[in-house]
Amino acid sequence: MQKNLVCCFCRFFRTDQTFFQLYIPSMDDRLRALLNKSLVELYMSFGIGWDTDVSGRTAEQFPTISDLYGIIRRKVQQKDNSSVYYEELLTYLESATNGADHLLWNGYTTIRPRSGFIVLDTKSLIQMSGTVLAAQYFNVLSWCWEQITHDRNERIMLVADECWTMIDYDPQRSKQKGLAFDMRDFCRDEDTCRRDLVLRYFGEKPPDDGGGRRCDNCAVPIDGIVRAEDARPLTDDERRVLRQRRCVH
Q: How high is the pLDDT of residue 2?
């Protein structure tokens, strides 16, 4: 059967597969197979099958991450042999559904192109983690390709800045970039306790004590000047935690 993939469910399914591979590269083959199965079931529940022409549908007629999350959660509640795997899959999707990344992906597109000259500002993506950055840049390029292929006879120029972030993704380099941003924030932040910033840098949760005059940010200034003696020294437990973390890193 021949069918234009631009108007076919196959295109959206393959886009979803690539998106999740970029967003969650650590997912094993078993979970990825269950995810693909859930995606097919999700689209079918919205009346979208392998032979469905979706070219005339609006964004609101497609499922969201919450819909996918709901299907997988129901499979967890069935308590069969696959429930434990679906529960793990649910954990992978938590951030995109309800957590830090839900504002990016859990909803309908807000792009409404009405011009022949369109600019998508991707500057803020550079400060995101490597997997989020790669997945979102893939979404941006996928949308651009969809616009370009509306009319193959129309001449269109696409300029993609910072595209190397998806093409040449290196987890180690991404981690180093993240640590560099943390160091920058440490130098610029004039409100947060520096002890708290250091503990977060090493993955520790700082105590909820308002800083406790442990650094120049929390010490009480005298005539606009913060003296070293005004900042309370770290406790022995705090020094021990920092020494342990320093050895690990």
A: 43
